[in-house]
Amino acid sequence: MRAPLSWLGEHAELPTGLSGRDLAEAMIRIGMEVEGVESGAKGLSGPLVVGRVVSFAAEPQKNGKTIRWCAVDVGPHNDGDEPRGIVCGASNFAVGDLVVVALPGAELAGGFAISARKTYGHVSDGMICSVRELGIGDEHDGILVLPAGTAEPGADALDVLGMDEAVLDVAVTTDRGYCLSIRGLAREAAAALGTPFHDITVALPEPDDKAYEVHVDDLAGCDRFSAMAVTGLDPSAPSPDWMTRRLQQCGMRPISLAVDVTNYVMLETGQPLHAFDRAKLSGPIRVRRADPGEKLTTLDGSVRSIEPADLVVTDDSGAIALAGVMGGASTEIGDGTTDIVLEAAHWNPTSIAFTARRHKLPSEASRRFERGVDPDIAGVALRRCVDLLVEYGGASAVDGYTVVGDPPPPPVIPLPAGRAEATAGMPIPPEEVMAHLKVVGCVVDGGGDMLQVQPPTWRPDLQAPADLVEEVVRLAGYDKLPSVLPAPIAGSGLTAAQALRRSVGRALAAAGFLEVLTYPFVSPSVHDAFGLAPDDPRRAALRLANPLSESEPELRTSLLPGLLATLVRNLGRGNRDIAIFEEGLVFHTDPTVPDVPRPGVDARPDEAVLTALFASIPPQPRHIGAVLCGELERPGWWGGARTASWADAVEAARIVVGAARASLDVRAAQLAPWHPGRCAELVLDGAVIGYAGELHPRVIGVLGLPARTCAMELDLDAVSPPGPAPAPRISSFPPVLLDVALVVAADVASADVLAAVRAGAGSLLESARLFDAYTDEVRLGAGLKSLAFALRFRATDRTLTVEEATAARDAAIARAGEATGAVLRS
Question: In the prediction, which pLDDT does 137 show?
Fold first, then answer.
């Protein structure tokens, strides 16, 4: 909403010498959003003065155009005692007319610089300006002629036109619809400055339904419809200059007196109005819902199919206006209109908002109605329109004032007198609370601990005590609120699960992985790209009811699609050596989950509905995944490069589980999208919690990944947070280091052999580690492999003897032989 300073000053007593920026800062302090302070002279500079046409000579040109060689008196800016000679192509002025002259050195709207230049055989010493060249209108065919006696030649044209006046540009939030008017903004300006506010006052007759016959069939959609009428309007009467200037300052284009008056009064009062050509009306005006299949040609020339949910204004011919949004072409004010019926209604905000959006037809009227309009201002707005049409259009007011409907009064809100002080955290005595509420326009009754507050009719947003507290605090001054740090809530820090997740993230980061965050939305085609079987449960993805993108309508059942998409994006940007991980939720379907209830918004759901809502939430386990490709170790003087392999993906899983001080078992497995011969299942406490290894070549080809790309994913919820770490038992006695090589069948898992060795070695075994795997059909035989383990024995209370260590080793070999058929390699 744009508001000229002088117009605000007609309703709020602004201090003398107050600048637009000072007023803007004051309004910002009470919570208004002033986006800027502009001037009508924006883009204009240099000498712009009033000139009087002394004489002119019409000179036809060879191109068929006729120019005028004019002598223009510009007062002190004349060339000595002689008027300035100016070439002008317009012909809508006469000798003696006052015009606006841009002298050499001036710059007009759009960066057009003025200089003395030779044209049409003369040196034009300036330019006579049109409204478009001044940036105050669209007319370009004729120059701007000022009313006689406006000013003397040589006067500052910007001052005469009021173009140097400050104009506030205010962003009006949806809850402050009353500020879409000069009346509302002036009230806020008066409150910000602590000066008196003068509301619009007119004398209204008693309603008698004589202006025009009106019937309202839908009082829920229109609780008040008011009308007045005028006759004998001069259709050729121009709008006064002060009115057109203010409309332009507010960003509206002047059209005709009747239209300009309704727009002007709407800007002043906040009440949208509509003018019907009385000669084009047939029968009484009626307000109702649209009939099925009904059509209406609106003022923009579009034929619209209106729906039964739309409110319409009708006469005997059918719909003549889309209520609260736009009028109809059939009763439009035209060049010959002399009799006018003026309408000011109070429409249901929700209905108007839906209609404007349904027809994609936003308008200045709907913008105000959907935010809430003062129902008691309609009569004032109508009277203002009638008075202006009578004064400037020669019209006669028709006796009568039609009013149908009576809106309910605003509610009375009980407000504890100390609530504003408690909320703001600074002293606000009850007397100040009452004073601020009265400035807003509220009627305040009572004293003591409880106030009874009735908001004004123009503030439909004030419905609860919290709304009133907000008004009190903003007028008391947001800048006065004390800065107090909130007291921290007592707690025990991170939960065990949170601490585990942080430990896991730090461990992977220390191992060289970078954490990423990806969207949880995937395309159904990813399941085919991964080569998932038709009955794979990961294909049963939840589908979003309103996805951000139709290409990704499903929630992920695995972290790998997002991680691999991130990998591809980085490859495209030149990164070749990548190790990334993500921790996040995946989403699974559960056929046992009941249908989701849909509670209404009119009341809080009861416990049964809440229980059903929580029960309908699908399983959302927390997973952690990682992908690797390229070189993990760069080549250098220390040796060659080392490329990421399936073992590094398995090691990433070990790092995750190791952060929980647990031990992970690894077994060979087959599962898409991993390579069938290079896939390991991750086992914790006997349960499979994930998979790691090299991706299948087919998947790598479909997704455009580098060869030998590796990945890991496991269920982090299956990893229990560790308890308090026990103090380590440190022995001062030396260890005994023994190596043992066992020959087993090629299909025996090394993890099974290692587990048997650990179980057989007993309590003296400190650690056991596989350090070599060897196959040779000649030396070992077909279908056999050799596994070499490094065993470390130690006692806490003595130095082990060779015999004790050897006995423990032999027990480990025996146990491995029993469990896996292992024999000692000779």
Answer: 64
The amino acid that residue 682 corresponds to is: L
Structural contact between residues 248 and 136, judged by C-beta atoms closer than 8 angstroms: yes
Backbone angles phi, psi at 763, to 5 degrees: -75, -15
CA 478 to chain centroid, in Å, comes to 25
- Where the chain has pLDDT below 70, the residues are 40, 136-141
Q: What angle do CA 593, 598, 604 make, to 5 degrees?
A: 115
pLDDT at position 572: 92
Total residue length of the chain: 826
Residue among 530, 512, 423 at smallest CA distance from 467: 423
Taking the C-alpha atoms of residue 61 and residue 703, their distance in angstroms, rounded to an integer, is 73
Number of CB atoms found within 10 A of residue 300's CB = 11
| Helix H or strand E encompassing 258 | helix 257-269
Question: Which token pair is 212?
Answer: 């025009």
In terms of Cα–Cα distance, which of 267, 226, 212, 221 is closest to 244?
267
What whole-number distance in Å separates Cα of residue 504 and Cα of residue 232? 85
Task: Confirm if 186 and 374 have CB atoms less than 8 A apart.
Answer: no
pLDDT, residue 9, reads 93
Q: What is the rounded distance in angstroms from the CA atom of residue 18 to the CA atom of residue 439?
A: 21
What DSSP character marks residue 413? E
Q: Are 203 and 365 in contact (CB under 8 A)?
A: no
Contact 712, 650 (CB under 8 A): yes
pLDDT digits (tens, 9 = 90+) for 419-446: 999 999 899 999 999 999 999 999 999 7
Q: Supply the pTM of this predicted model.
A: 0.62
- Cβ-contact 623, 558 below 8 angstroms: yes
Look at strands 33-39 and 84-88 and give their pairing: unpaired
**Widest Cα–Cα separation across the chain:** 131
Phi, psi of 626 (to 5 degrees): -150, 145
User: Which stretches of 441-490 are assigned E, i.e. beta strand?
Assistant: 443-445, 450-454
101 Cβ contact list (under 8 Å, min separation 6): 48, 49, 50, 51, 72, 74, 84, 86, 126, 127, 128, 129, 157
CB atoms within 10 A of CB 494: 11
CA-based R_g, the chain, Å: 42
| Residues 438 and 444: beta-carbon distance below 8 Å | yes
Least Cα distance to 501 among 623, 414, 411, 404 occurs for 623
**DSSP letter, residue 370:** T
Looking at residue 603, what is its pLDDT? 82
